[in-house]
Amino acid sequence: MSRGKKWILRGLAVLGILCALGAALVFGLSGYVVLSTRQQFRTLEDTPPEAVDCILVLGCGVYADGTPTPMLSDRLTRGVELYQAGWADKLLMSGDNRSQDYNELATMHRVALEKGVPQADVVLDYAGLSTYDSLYRARDIFGVKKVVIVTQEYHMYRALYLARALGLEAWGVAADGQNYRGQTMRDLREILARDKDVLWAIFQPEPTYSGDPEPLTGTP
Questions:
Q1: What pTM was computed for the model?
Q2: Could you list the mean pLDDT of each consecutive 10-residue stretch along the chain, which spans 220 residues?
Q3: Among the listed residues 150, 157, 139, the one whose alpha carbon sits nearest the alpha carbon of residue 174
Q4: CA triple 197-79-91, angle to 5 deg
């Protein structure tokens, strides 16, 4: 075998090893996030934790006519169920309102009121542009220390991991009410999202938008 072919084979071997190590890191970090947060999951039938500040419903998507996507609809339903079951006396809705043409919070607010939650118990965070931003702002803007998070299971692990890294005492109640179109791709993207948020949890950058404190007890 010529020297050139040997170098090519060695290079391919090194590349294969690096790819394997990269894959192990990607899947390993994601797996750690999942395994380290399983014990924080609860169900609607469980006894509620004591002295929870709020139920945090994370936004995800609305249609052009203002109706919630199936995933958001299930989150809102579960959040209201927890509120009505006495898990907390405030619903903190956190979502994306970065433009006049897209407003998750208007939909979330309207649905919560339609389901019977009093206006005074619905708190809106219009700058929850990411899971990290929502949890960071829940702590620093709204003064939350103990929180029940509502989202789908695949997303819950990352939310709980970030909450713990930010010093919040958190539990998660999943809102998987149906099979969602495109879930396989979401599951694959979530692996990388978990890895990214491990870094966010370590370095804890400022959220996209900050602001003055608005404690839940002082929010009209």
A1: 0.90
A2: 66 68 80 96 96 96 91 97 97 85 89 96 95 97 97 98 98 93 93 95 94 74
A3: 150
A4: 85
